[in-house]
């Protein structure tokens, strides 16, 4: 039997714009998904059929990287589904890690590449930020050109992303979850359609790219006030891209009196927001008073871990 685990993620700056090749910054979070794999006489996932649509990422991962006999897979996850916290990336990375561990040594870069292909195939369009952050752990900066902390490059068509390890100071983040699960694929497709027809949306994508690099610099010099302002602006621009939700706006507004800044995170359309704060209890209470469920997350240094 093999076993692998991989963390969820939270995008600090740059979601959606990263699909167009703009920079983005994410951190792995201390919520993990674990996958166990053992040889069996028929295919099973959590005792059910691999054909169930809720296992689309797992099935694609199996199709892409397993030529052997049937397996019994078991998945345990602490990451709420469809809430912008990287549940599909984590299950994809952990599944690929468990399959790789049955076959030999596990290489996080190879898993990150395969996981991106799985996510791209299931979602229709994607960037490697979620899958590479889950595979590497810690904080990950995506940009076109390779620089300090370079990990690997991933290409798709004319888009190219260089993934980097980013050193960030410890920050306190409170996540507010709307409880509304929204599929990433249609949201990403909707942004593409908007960018193709509306120059304001195309300008928003470019501005988000600049915000990400300014935001990284602000976090690195511990200027949380500036980082928070940039998060607030990023949230506005994500609304211009059409991926907001009234509950996200409500939670962001509720959090801001006790936060440096707040924004939606991940694909949007529901899902989650987070606030950068030094008053986490006040922010948590404010989001809960506004009807959300809220919890603190920390950067998770560990990425994919797998053993035979
Ligand atoms: C989803 O967590 C992040 C998006 O930018 C999609 C992607 O990068 O594949 C919305």
Task: Give a structural overview.
There is one protein chain. By secondary structure, the protein is α+β, with helices and mostly antiparallel strands. The protein folds into 2 domains: 2-169, Ribosomal Protein S5, domain 2; 172-298, GHMP kinase, C-terminal domain (Alpha-Beta Plaits), CATH 3.30.70.890. It has 9 helices and 12 strands. The protein has helices at 56-65, 87-103, 108-123, 129-136, 184-197, 199-220, 224-240, 246-255, 280-289; strands at 2-13, 24-39, 44-45, 71-77, 139-143, 150-156, 159-166, 173-177, 261-265, 272-276, 293-297, 305-307. The strands form 2 sheets. Strands 1, 2, 3, 4, 5, 6, 7 and 12 form an 8-stranded mixed β-sheet that branches. It has a 4-stranded antiparallel β-sheet with strand order 9-10-8-11. It is globular, with a radius of gyration of 18 Å. The mean pLDDT is 97. Residues 11, 15-16, 18-19, 84, 126-127, 129-130, 184, 188, 266-267 line the site of (R)-mevalonate (MEV).
């Amino acid at each position: 039997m093999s076993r692998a685990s991989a963390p969820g993620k939270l995008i600090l700056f740059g979601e959606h714009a990263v699909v167009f090749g703009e920079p983005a910054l994410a951190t792995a979070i201390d919520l993990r998904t674990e996958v166990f794999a053992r040889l069996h006489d028929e295919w099973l996932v959590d005792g059910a059929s691999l054909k169930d649509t809720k296992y689309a990422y797992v099935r694609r991962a199996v199709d892409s990287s397993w030529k052997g006999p049937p397996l019994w897979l078991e998945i345990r996850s602490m990451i709420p589904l469809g809430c912008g916290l990287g549940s599909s990336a984590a299950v994809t990375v952990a599944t690929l890690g468990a399959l790789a561990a049955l076959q030999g040594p596990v290489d996080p870069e190879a898993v990150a590449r395969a996981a991106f292909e799985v996510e791209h195939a299931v979602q229709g369009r994607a960037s490697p930020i979620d899958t590479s952050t889950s595979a590497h752990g810690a904080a990950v900066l995506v940009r076109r050109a390779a620089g300090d902390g370079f990990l690997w490059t991933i290409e798709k068509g004319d888009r190219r992303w260089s993934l980097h390890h980013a050193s960030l100071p410890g920050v306190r983040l409170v996540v507010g979850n709307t409880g509304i699960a929204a599929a990433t694929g249609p949201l990403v497709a909707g942004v593409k359609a908007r960018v193709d027809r509306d120059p304001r949306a195309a300008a928003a994508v470019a501005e988000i790219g600049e915000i990400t690099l300014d935001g990284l610099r602000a976090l690195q010099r511990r200027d949380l006030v500036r980082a928070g302002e940039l998060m607030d602006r990023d949230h506005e621009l994500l609304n211009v891209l059409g991926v907001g939700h009234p509950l996200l706006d409500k939670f962001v507004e509720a959090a801001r009196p006790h936060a440096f800044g707040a924004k939606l995170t991940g694909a949007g359309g529901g899902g989650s927001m987070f606030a950068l704060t030094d008053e986490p209890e006040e922010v948590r209470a404010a989001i809960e008073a506004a009807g959300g469920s809220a919890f603190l997350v920390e950067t998770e240094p560990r990425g994919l871990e797998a053993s035979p």
